[in-house]
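WARN retry 2 of 3 for item q-0093 after timeout on previous attempt; input resubmitted unchanged.
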Amino acid sequence: MMRFVRAHRFRNYSLALLWKDLLSGLIVGIIALPLGMAFAIASGVDPQYGIYTTIIAGILISVFGGSRHQIGGPTGAFVPVIFGIVTLYGFEDLLIAGFMAGMMLLLMGLLKMGAFIKYIPRPVTIGFTAGIAVIIFTGQIANFLGLQGIQKHERFIDNMAEIVRHVGTTDPAAVLIAAISLLFIIVTPKLFPKLPGSFVALIVAGGAAALFFPDKIATIGSTYGAIPSSLPTFRLPNITWDKVQSLFVPALTIALLGGVESLLSAVVADGMTGDRHHSNRELIGQGIANLAAPLFGGIPATGAIARTATNIKNGAQSPVSGIVHGFVTLLILLLFAPYASAIPLAAMAPVLMTVAWNMSEVRRFKYIVRLKTGDTLVLLVTFLLTVFVDLITGVGAGLLLAFVLFVKKMSSISVTTKTGEHFAEDRQERICYAEVEGVLFFGAAQSFERLILDQLRDRPSIVVIRLKQVPFIDTTGISYLSGVIGFVQSYGGTVLISEVQPQLREMFMRTELDKMIGETNMFAQTGQAVRYADSLFHRGKTDVCG
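OK item q-0093 returned
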């Protein structure tokens, strides 16, 4: 680890670069504070737990992660997952699930599983991300309108019905404060690009609420209690075997989602900087952070794409900026916690709504929908099930559908044949030349067998099978290919194999199919195989060309 830190993450580091890291860390830390509180509130937990996560997980992800620019902390992706766990199990069990997820992420990194997570299809990630965005956005409508008597539910439909039932309790004052907050979120980056819009919006909207509507609009303090101006004490969660069993699926969900989000964020950072992250080390860093955060009341954390991009745009050069961002958040907590408690919930709502809109990837979503392909179906199924059922069902169904469509697409295989005749010693000999094109795996192997056996009904003496256009074969393909070879050999025929790709040759050797074929019957070029077939007839060439 230390060798990596010296050789890569702090390569050619200097005081000038340190200054850039300090500035970017300061800006991102200011941005992270309201977001940490907002994500905690949306997740159904007290806002200070989002701040604790920003501090502890943010620092540890920067220290131990695999990206030089990654900013970690609570994110919108976890909102429906955390809310569901808190609703079903309670906050204490959420801490246990988060701790278990940290252990899982650490193991994933140590077992070098980072590369596998990257294979999740893009339509699935866009689908569930857009679904989460819808849940977050609609979840803030009640705070935006200042609705009274709202009960939070786990299901999207139930929450929307709750809003409709209470829409008559809309508070004009809350709507005005929310509108002011939204206005400054939109306008600030355009007029003052260096200022964090959400932070400015909360200060202005909070000041307006205190000035014009004192004690009339719900605030963080009036709803959740005052935010403590210190970190909580270290406390080990009460983990029992029963808890481990009951929380295994929630913990696995947190781990997988955290792994996917962190690596996506690292890829975005790579694209912006030209750097290359280390996926397995990133998972290790995420694991350590999620092991530590629950010990101080922190909720699950992962790489935050928006904050990471902001970090890079403000000149971040190394993980120091991420470490600084965590300490800046801690300093704000220690000095300004009472002021944070006075922030109106109506002012927080546009912050989360903006985050939801930005994470929804509307353009990519529309682009895939317009394609009207299998990817479109995968995207819509993942999106709709994430919104109307839950994230686990949405992602699971999306992955299953993507797999089925992939198998269907890859199952397309063709066998082109040509036959020739030769007369030797008053008997007719036949040769069949077959060219196979496609992937010989479990989805296509049976079709391959049927296609080629249809051409072998006349039992040719020699069968030449060209495999140049077959890039891959699995054990099912080996089984069916050996069946074809066995059929020809059963009536005394000979099979010649030509132009075998490296992966196929390795599988032939591992399954000993090469011994069944015979080393002398395998050729680098099809022309060699045809000439060898001619020699077996003891006379001139057949009418089959290679």
